[in-house]
Amino acid sequence: MDRTATLFRRAGQPAVTQPTAIQGEALRMDGFSLSRETVPAGGTFDMDMAWAAVAAPQVDYQTNVWLVGPNGLTWSDKGTERPRVYEDAPPTRQWAAGEWGWDSREVRVLSGTPPGEYDLVVTLFDKATLEPLTLTDPATGAVIGPTAVVGQVTVGETNEGEIEPQFSLTADSSALGLHLLGYNQDRNVAAPGEGVLLTLFWERLENSSPASDFTLVLQDEAGTAVQSWMLPVTRADYPPASWPEGRPVRGQYVVSLPPDLASGTYTFVIEGSPILGDLQVNAPERLTELPPLSPVLDVDFNLPDGSIAATLAGLNGTNLDDVALCTDERTAGETCRVPLVWQAVAELPTSYHIFLHLVDADGQLLAQTDGIPANWERPTTGWLPGEVILDDHLLTLPNPLPEGPLTLRVGLYDPDTGTRLAVGEADYLTIPCPEDASEM
Length: 440
Hints:
Layout lengths: L21 E3 L2 E8 L3 E3 L3 E10 L7 E8 L31 E9 L7 E11 L8 E2 L6 E3 L1 E10 L10 E7 L4 E8 L3 E2 L4 E10 L8 E7 L5 E8 L16 E8 L7 E7 L4 E7 L11 E10 L5 E9 L18 E10 L8 E7 L5 E7 L1 H4 L11 E9 L10 E7 L15 E4 L8
Parallel strand pairs: 3-10, 13-19
Antiparallel strand pairs: 1-2, 2-4, 4-6, 5-7, 7-10, 8-9, 11-12, 12-14, 14-17, 15-16, 15-18, 18-19, 20-21, 21-22, 22-25, 23-24, 23-26, 26-27
């Protein structure tokens, strides 16, 4: 591709080396090309995506790209930038149906990333709201999710020795046969059930037989272990015994805090090795009584084994004047509040996301929200059986509004796999929008 070209209005098909089609509302990606498919840890590569407008976009969209390893964690910088020389396509709101253009992103692999195959993941989002779009397969219409794996990249060995941990250490662990150079901790305040991302920078000790696993312990202020995790030092297909001596290797771990953890200060410790960072845990107020509901739904969402994960009790009708369910009577562009009320049934090891889709009479998506319940503050991994969770969502009506009835679809899904929880024979709950909010 010629990145210095300024011509945008094109017909025909883009010349891509990897034709992979995904679609998000008005845009469809027809494929991409990579500047290289093997990159060393700490290195960069460019990804040139060809996006086409299947309809005139109403908002400005942007993409992001990252690498994901076998453990589901990200092994590249969270944000991507345009390469220094790239084709400058106009904002998507200026695109007409049938036009296409290149979107180029520079992806930087994290230093110390262990070698191996990594998934190339793409997301498409509204630049104004940062809300990710639900991606689909344009050939079948099947929902993929807010992200899509579109290919793979190989990370190779590197001779680089530079790392920059957030907290440096000078601790050898003779029991593990490793030297711990430092660590990163993504947060120092968390809620029960939340995941904490720890990054450890290891180096193999000379003439050692290093262990492949280690034990991470969470201690309370009295030094009592309240939780422990047995973790691999890094990728299972890159055991420390095969590491070159003197070369730092990055390990990443998300550890889920117990859902019933009390408020207080806790400390991460590697068993038989150094003390890591402190963590302030703030337990939420637990509700056990349902508020007035309007309407009452009482619908179960089921795990793959058939057991109940949670129940959607209904919509919070405490203040009916403030309950703005989206209806075809309302004003185009209006923001509507949808106050879901959940009741936990079981402790859940997976942090499920909630999606809320507003569709027209033909099932076409008009508006959506997606994410962790209660404005990202109450992950399902922190729910306790019997607890009531208030989960408000905001939807913005499209302009113009379509004719005919509107419907809400509510679902729970695993963001790592895209798998949705079952609702009877379906994988979402349908809630018809009343013509008048007073009917709720």
